[in-house]
Amino acid sequence: MNIRETIENREEVTLNKHAVLSKNTRGRSVAEKEEDIRTCFMRDRDRIVHTKSFRRLKHKTQVFIRTSGDHYRTRLTHTLEVAQIARTIAKGIGLNDDLVDAIALGHDIGHVAFAHNGEEVLNELMPNGFKHNINSIRVLTRLEKNGAGLNLTEEVLDGILHHSGFDKNGKEAFTLEGQVVKYADKIAYVNHDIDDSIRAGLIVEEDLPSEYINILGHTNSDRINRLVHDIIYNTINNLESENIKVNLSEEVGYALTGLRSFMFKEVYKGNILRNEREKAKFVFEQVFMYYVKNQDKLPKFYRDIAEEEGIYQGVCDYIGGMSDDYCIHLFNELYVPKFVIY
Predict the structure, then answer these.
(1) Which fold has domain 3-285?
(2) Where along the chain do its domains lie?
(3) What are phi and psi of 318, to 5 degrees?
(4) pLDDT (tens digit, 9 = 90+) per residue, 183-196?
(5) What rounded mean pLDDT belongs to the chain?
(6) Are 71 and 41 in contact (CB under 8 A)?
(7) If we measure between CA atoms, which residue out of 138, 89, 83, 82 comes closest to residue 109?
């Protein structure tokens, strides 16, 4: 008995007609023989989870709150929360939750140390700029497996590439599953970053704009519940009327966008963490420029990239994969004097 074919047949019977069926994938850049148990999207999910890049997410910042507390989100726990929310939405609508899972687990794999602070530094330093979603594709296709890449399906790569941003005029993933992850990402980080910011004493519940929380709810769980319910039922209504897209209702979408803007103004780019952000950017830039000036100090894999694609790309690939702690460790090794007693 071929279990993969059984799973694929089950998808055909149970999923929404607008869902992506595993057997109808657009495929991989290099064709592979199918397995007898896992579908193509199940294989992609497993490949992502077993990468070194995925494991390093546990030591990369979500929001730059340097703390010894165990309960603050990291980039890895953020990724898991996105995957959980996205799977719930996908199941509610009737979409392919294996595809959603793979996209969600890989969506932030290209994030660098110190969250968006590191990304801003690279965007200023790199000749063609830097965006973490594009870097996620590079990590998965060019850097992992010692340069061989994971050979993921086109649907997974497209969903990862288009998960970022919240601009109505931005390009969307060509699958509904990819669109689900884009919303799940925002639902997750807006709410868990509020939770972490309150825990850290940066804001209090009363600071949250009432015009938005009166719509979404006054607790973290209430807000997520409202958002998940709304996007499921609103999208089902869209699909029944042949409006083939994933989105929130106008009222709830307005509230999420407003709450997200509040977080950008007060926390992500506000004065509260400005000094810590500047310290992080200073450390990141100094480590970057050290390797630009000392190409011979790069590991061989990245020296080879530097010779093929330029020194800035080689250095970007190397320090882009670093965790916060490792980047700080290198900065200390490179720039902090060591006291020696003779």
Answers:
(1) Hypothetical protein af1432 (1.10.3210)
(2) 3-285
(3) -70, -55
(4) 999 999 999 999 99
(5) 94
(6) no
(7) 138
